[in-house]
Prior knowledge:
Layout: E1 7-9, E2 15-17, E3 21-22, H1 30-42, E4 46-48, H2 56-65, E5 74-79, H3 86-100, E6 107-110, H4 118-130, E7 137-140, H5 144-153, E8 160-164, H6 172-180, E9 184-188, H7 200-209, H8 213-223, E10 227-228, H9 235-240, H10 251-258
Parallel strand pairs: 3-4, 4-5, 5-6, 6-7, 7-8, 8-9, 9-10
Antiparallel strand pairs: 1-2
The structure holds NADPH dihydro-nicotinamide-adenine-dinucleotide phosphate (NDP).
Amino acid sequence: MNHISATFSLRNGVEIPVLGLGVFRADDGPEVMQAIQYALDVGYRSFDTASIYGNEKGVGTAIHQHDVHRSDVFLTSKVWNSDHGYKKTMEAFHKSLERLKTNYLDLYLIHWPVKDLYKETWNALEDLYDSGGVRAIGVSNFNMHHLEDILTDCRIVPMVNQIEFHPSMVQNELHEFCLSEEIRTQAWSPIMRGRVSDIALLKTIGEKYGKSPVQVTLRWEIQKGIVVIPKSVRKDRIRSNAQIFDFELSPLEVELIDALNKNERLGPDPDNFDF
Length: 275
Ligand code: NDP
């Protein structure tokens, strides 16, 4: 893990870049397009969007306009809560492809575990995978009991679980369960929307390596085997968030950061959401 092109393997052998750019709350149009362009220029090759973000068009256009080959890009999108169910998921997937100007996705995720529906939605993702429409399929915001439930009768085990994960919400138990099932953990809000900059321990560790608290946090996550997708639309931050491949935290430092956990969420609780 010493270069921006570093990848982790998914359980089906597909390689996923350890670092990607998240684009939640980036406006469709020039804002998201410029962010993707900066990121591609710096060496990012992975982008995390979702139909609900409303910016798939901009993401697709920016990738299309860049001289990067589609096959060198890892593109993720997600099926939104109102599109659950077999038929609606199929339709939502094809609309995402159209907006993203591509004929396949690298990763398609169930965005939230909508009660009583996520298994039917999963069947659709399995069929999309079988038909070659997507190279890997996974879930997001699944707690252990959701995963256990889906594992009882799925044909294909999810390859990824994208969850809230950062120094105030260190979900080690869930992460370890995922590791044991060969489900790759992906961290959303990996830098606590910038708030890790205020954490004293991260500043102290960062001083030792000449790194910022944000960079220390992203390094901690990737050393734990977790994919990170920090969001920024700013050129300087897109660049600095990727400068995490030239230092290594000690096992003790990793443990000290783990111990910052407060089980404090910034986002909704997957067991209690109403959207
Ligand atoms: P992040 O932890 O990635 O933080 C993003 C925020 O931090 C933005 O406001 C950004 O502002 C700012 N920021 C970025 N870099 C720096 C830096 N170096 N120093 C200080 N501030 C910085 O939060 P997100 O919630 O965006 O999560 C990342 C991605 O995860 C999302 O974009 C999305 O793709 C995904 N996600 C998935 C969810 C799910 O349910 N599956 C839920 C939430 C997010 P600016 O852009 O101005 O630089």
